[in-house]
Description:
2 copies of one chain form a homodimer.
Chain A: H1 14-19, E1 40-44, H2 48-60, E2 64-68, H3 74-80, E3 84-87, H4 96-106, E4 112-116, H5 121-130, E5 134-137, H6 142-158, E6 168-170, E7 173-176, E8 181-184, E9 187-188, H7 193-204, E10 209-211, H8 212-220, H9 230-245, E11 249-255, E12 259-266, H10 281-284
Helix pairs in contact in A: 7-8, 7-9
The structure holds a DNA duplex (30 and 30 nucleotides).
Amino acid sequence: MAASQPPVRLPATMHSIAAVTPDRPLGDSNSQGARSAPLRLAVIDGDSGFLHVLDKRVCARGWQQRVFPGAVPVEELVALRLGALVIDLFVLGASGWAYLEQVGTALPALPTIVCSGPSTVAQRVRALRLGADDWLAKPCHPEELIARIEAIVRRGRVAAPPAERPALEAGELSIRSDQFQAFVGTRSLDLTRREFELIRLLAGNAGHVLERETIYQRVWGYAMAHGDRSVDVFVRKLRQKLERASPQWRYIHTHFGVGYRFAPERVDAGEAPSMAGELTAGELTAEHLLQ
Amino acid sequence: MAASQPPVRLPATMHSIAAVTPDRPLGDSNSQGARSAPLRLAVIDGDSGFLHVLDKRVCARGWQQRVFPGAVPVEELVALRLGALVIDLFVLGASGWAYLEQVGTALPALPTIVCSGPSTVAQRVRALRLGADDWLAKPCHPEELIARIEAIVRRGRVAAPPAERPALEAGELSIRSDQFQAFVGTRSLDLTRREFELIRLLAGNAGHVLERETIYQRVWGYAMAHGDRSVDVFVRKLRQKLERASPQWRYIHTHFGVGYRFAPERVDAGEAPSMAGELTAGELTAEHLLQ
DNA sequence: GGGGGTTGTGAACCCCCTGTTACCGAGGCA
DNA sequence: TGCCTCGGTAACAGGGGGTTCACAACCCCC
């Protein structure tokens, strides 16, 4: 652990929190619990009752479902671009095992779940060894089947590359999460990590006034102590760097007694040093500035 | 984004691989795909009969097993470098759900199986949604449990297929996944396995800043313990070898408080030791560096 | 216009982050 | 068994960046 540091250490140190990404811009992967991406599902089964109930749940989730009464040629499966495959092994009879192996070999990346009636341990083990990801006994609840499919898909995804985060554009600014940095044209603002987290939060809520406590909570990761001026200090640092890189624009506006609001505004040449707190309706809902 | 992501190595796999091919640049050590590599298993359970039977099977497979009577702090799990975790949720009582969620959040790459007594559909679904990969009802046959563990581990592995990967070209560097080695011209950098995995990850995401936690997660395969300096040390080793083989170029840039970014840059003769944080758009979207 | 609270600004302090080196244990190999 | 390589940990030095403080400037309200 920490090298030559004195013994006393607060548990929730700033670093660990900051490192854990206090503010997920959203639309991010962590929503797995709630919604998952639309999934294309193929079901090889003949049980119409089961299929009907399953279809309802699948549709409710926004997924798509194709039903097949028997074995589907592997090439066809490939063409379907499936997200997952559900098989009742026993509708395929004795050839089911060979088929399962075939699918497992040809499409190892395809999540495959066997959903069949009464079975023995040996059968289940065999299926799993042949490439199936799971075996769920019928009768089963469709929600459990869906949850199991999601679990398998999720497992495959944690190994996949992280989703790409788009850049935020505002005025002359380009805020790139993959760089932990903001740019004007090609020039970096040379923001520190905290400065970047702060501007990302503000720009991510452009047009909205954010209270200091909120800002602190989301950038620092824990509650702001009374009298803490950190937010003000960092806003100043940000303004300084913004002013230097993009002198024709003002980005961060102070709301006295409240907090700060991000909204890119072109500076009028002959502008008097206007009040920061003065607003117009246009500024407030400045949607035209960002998306 | 980067198509050619390095695979996420599960701990057990990784160790065995690293151990098997310490220096040998390689000849297709990927044969491990079929046979399951030794797996380090943790079981949170109190059922001595179950544990005994399971232990026999686990040992027969050449795996290792650690048993815990109750919840294990996540940091401890990290330190154990597990390949999979088996939990009897009900021995943890009401706190079991929170614990499961905690594990799922901190160690998303860790295959987790709940193996508990009678349960409801709702309980199983809940566990799966919280991050469990599977739920197997007790009493169960240990062979099925093992087969299910293997299926999950396999799923995590196929997500990053060892398919033929083209060589990555960057500056004077040529990173050949089929050789597990990097070259300058024809001269090998003589990278170790870990060093190679690291540079492959970085170069595969050229132009993007990767956080230490991300790097660790994807190269080492499990969550980074607080205070771990392994990434830094390996970056230094890499820089040393890169400097020796390609002195006219700088490849790895530090982003203070964040992590590292790979971007080949020719060293100017009279160059002052410039800041790593300084970027140009050219570097950012450095597509010309790869592909 | 004046007073009290709020915000801007600059600088000092010091913690912690990173680079770097050395050391140790594990495992392969002879 | 002994040597060697490799991975991981510990320790230290140096410097960047976060926090805090003091004071000035400012805003709002009475």
